[in-house]
Every structure is written in C-alpha cells, then in structure tokens.
Amino acid sequence: MPIKIPNSLPAVKTLHEENIFVMDDERAAMQDIRPLRILLLNLMPKKIETETQLSRLLGNTPLQIELELICTSSHQPANTPAEHMLAFYKHFEDVKTERFDGMIITGAPVETLPFEDVDYWEELCEIMAWSKTHVYSTFHICWGAQAGLFYHHGVPKRPLSEKMFGVFPHEVETRRSMLFRGFDDSFMVPHSRHTTVDRHELEKVPELQILASSKEAGVYAAATKGGRQIFIMGHSEYDARTLESEYFRDKTLERPISIPKNYYPEDDDSRTPTMSWRAHANLLYSNWLNYFVYQDTPYDLSRLAELGK
After folding, report:
1. Are 55 and 3 contacting, i.e. CB atoms less than 8 angstroms apart?
2. Would you say 106 and 50 are in contact if contact means Cβ atoms under 8 Å apart?
3. Which of the following is catalytic: 142, 152, 191, 280?
4. Is 170 a catalytic residue?
5. Are strands 65-71 and 3-4 parallel, antiparallel or unpaired?
6. Is 237 a catalytic residue?
7. Which entry of 51, 111, 237, 246 is annotated as an active-site residue?
8. What is the pTM of this model?
C-alpha cells in the first residue's frame, strides 16, 4: 500500500524511481479506508534528505499512510530553502487541535547542548506533552529519543569520550517484543552521536523496557510497556552514504573525526561503503506501523484523550 505525501514534495520523484508506491491526493480521495495519520516533527538540518529517508520506510509497508510535516516555529532552519519550508511544513500551532495515529520526532545536531539551552526546547516540551493525548504512538529517534526520555521519564543524556560513529551489531533483548518481530539474532544499525543514555538509569524507570542493545553502542531501543512511547538511539533511516557525507564534511572542516566503524570495506574511505542495515530498517518501521499503530489505535482518533499515556 502507498504513502500519501504532497504531490510536489522532492521525495516523490526519488520514491517513484525506487518503485515505492506513492499516492496522489486525487487517488487517495477515492479510497474507502481511513489512512494512518503520521506526524513528522523534522528537527534535522537537511530536512529534504530526512523526509525522503523516512517516507521511503513508511511507504514500504502494506498500510496506507498520510504524512504531515511540521517544524518548530522557534528555530529557523539554515540548510533547507525557505520556499520548501513554506510549501510543505506546518508549525505546531497549525496542527495542535488535530489527532494522529503516530508521530516521529527526529534527531537534531544539538546533543552537546544542555536540553534547556536548545532554542526550541520549550516548544518541544509542549509538543511532547501534547503527544500524550493527541498521538497514539510516538517514535523518537537519536537526540529526539534522548529528549523524550529526559522529558517524560527524567533520564539524562551523558557525554561520550569520543563520537559513536559507524555501523554496529545489535541484539534483541526482549524476544517477545513485536517491534523486533522477525529480526535476526544480530542486526546492524548506524550511529552518529556524541552522547548516550546510561543503561542503569533506564533500568530504574519501571515504565520502560529495554528492547535491544549493542555491546559497543549501548542501548538501542526502549519503550513503554504498551508501546505508546518508543525510543530509538540509532539512525536506521540513514541512506547508504549519509555517514560518508558526515565523515567528509568533518574532515573538510578539520574537526576531529574517525573513519566510521564497520562501514567501508577494509576501512578504505576511497571505496563504496557497505549498506548492511536496510532490511532491518524496513522491518523496524513496518513493525511499528503494524503492531503499535494500526493494530491498536482507535478508528475514531477523538478517543485518544480517553486512553491516557
């Protein structure tokens, strides 16, 4: 089944070329089913790249998805054309009376700042509070996961001695979790971050369950018992060359950066990187949409406020 996104969004051309079914507004209006309404709060600097990556994963499922894009009004993006933002993005004020089946909060390049020093922190807190009564399941990514864990559960982020950068093997810890249904014993995930969350501090929160982790990269996935809040520490949505782009950017700017681990064949950055996480990335998002959104969300979204969080 398709993903419904604005007809002229740059992602449409890319997804068509990859044979991912994208539905236009006219055809969607003829469907006699209610699509899943997914809200994407895009905090990443390269918004077109991120919205394309996530649309690709959301569109590769048997469910019809209607994607709404929002950004913060308290921060002006510097890396995305203003005309793109005006054409495709709304602000929280524009959607706060609506309700959604699912929501994705992306990462952001502000992890070295204290949460309270991020210029849109108060607005993000308002959105996360609103999600408790207006969204069925919220999927937090990387810094978005750290922000959500801190806001909702008081779990702080901790600085790393060096950047966690590369593609790392992970294991599922909670085999009964439907989020990881069908996963192999070991699966790969990209990471690119300067901070982490401490496992022992997560384990002190009775509402949270650790679902998957890596011996080197630490906790990868945690969730509340019913999956209304899901926290993913890595970047499963990354394209094959996203880490490469970050790596050469930092090298050009003469920032301290190591070659991404488990990425280039024989650690040779002149060779084509190996993409070893695509299948599990698709399975992760398919499982989230199917088991934590589609199967459980009420048909009448006005009932969300009755469910609590």
Report:
1. yes
2. yes
3. 142
4. no
5. parallel
6. yes
7. 237
8. 0.87
Cα–Cα distance measured from residue 131 to residue 92, given in angstroms and rounded to the nearest whole number: 11
Distance CA 122, CA 230 (A): 21
Cβ atoms within 10 Å, residue 35: 18
215-237 confidence digits (pLDDT tens): 999 999 999 988 999 999 999 99
pLDDT in tens, 36-48: 999 999 999 999 9
| Sole residue written with tokens 């002006």 | 76
Q: How far apart are CA 52 and CA 3, in angstroms?
A: 12
Nearest to 230 by CA among 59, 126, 103: 103
Q: Which of 153, 170, 191, 235 is catalytic?
A: 235
In order of 174, 201, 272, 291, the CA distances from 185 in angstroms are 12, 26, 26, 20
Helix (H/G/I), strand (E/B), else coil: 189: strand
The H or E element spanning position 22 is strand 22-23
Judge contact between 50 and 237, C-beta under 8 A.
yes
pLDDT band at 30 (very low <50, low <70, confident <90, very high): very low
The single residue listed with the structure tokens 């398709």 is 2
280 catalytic? Reply is: no
Would you call 211 helix, strand, or coil by DSSP? strand
Domains of the chain: 3-307 (3.40.50.880)
Residue pair 105/144 in contact by the 8 Å Cβ criterion: yes
CB–CB of 211/174 below 8 Å? Answer: yes
The C-alpha torsion from 78 through 138 and 92 to 53, rounded to 10°, is: 30
